[in-house]
């Protein structure tokens, strides 16, 4: 059986990654979404094991030393990491896996899993990005500025990805990502079994 596709989506803070990924998963429920671990405190409405696995810094560091993460990074003063074992299990079963991670983490995954599909989500403009972060209302003025500066730096790193998707409307962005996944799943390198089956028939 062919391995599933590792799909990595990043985008600067306020680009709407969370909303886009949720809609994508509702339309393609066969994709396995990897729940990350973090040392950040839960925001209101967030549940342990749903949005994230919320860990203490000590527990997180313990897992790093045990090699339990595919990648991890420090983002805005908190640790975030992708648990390794479930991902391997699902990919081996031929299922596609989605990671929604920051650019530092994604650059590490590019090294470790070059066969992955790397998609960078962009805001329609920087002005729009600033007002989206602000309107979210979850940040203090100081973290708002930090996130906006980090967002601009992240957009620069986006040039290293394979695909760029502008999130002007969620529906259109999701359609584009679905097209990318369809095209990637049809690549010859991912479908050697189809050739074998056809050749055996003749
Ligand atoms: P938030 O705190 O707003 O949920 O996420 C902050 C940032 O951390 C986002 O850019 C998000 O993509 C990133 N992030 C979430 N999970 C992971 C992870 O497992 N690894 C890395 N490297 N970044 C992550």
Which terms summarize this structure?
alpha/beta, 4-stranded mixed sheet, binds guanosine-5'-monophosphate, globular, 5-stranded parallel sheet, 202 residues
How would you sum up this structure in a few lines?
The protein has 202 residues and is α/β, with parallel strands linked by helices.
Task: Describe the structure in your own words.
It contains 8 helices and 9 strands. It is α/β, with parallel strands linked by helices. The chain has a 5-stranded parallel beta sheet with strand order 2-7-1-8-9, sandwiched between helices. A 4-stranded mixed beta sheet has the order 4-3-6-5. Bound molecules: guanosine-5'-monophosphate (5GP). Residues 36, 40, 71, 73, 75, 80-82, 100-102, 104-105 line the site of guanosine-5'-monophosphate.
Ligand identities: guanosine-5'-monophosphate
What would you call the shape? globular
Q: Return Rg in Å.
A: 18 Å
Low-confidence sequence ranges:
none
Strand content: 15-25%
- Counting DSSP H or I runs of 4 or more residues, the number of helices is 8
Number of strands: 9
Biggest sheet, open or closed, and with what strands and sense?
5 strands, parallel
The largest sheet has its strands arranged as 2-7-1-8-9
Secondary structure class reads alpha/beta
Mean pLDDT: 93
Helix and strand succession? EHEEEHEEHEHEHHEHH
Distance between the termini: 21 Å
> What portion of residues is helical?
40-55%
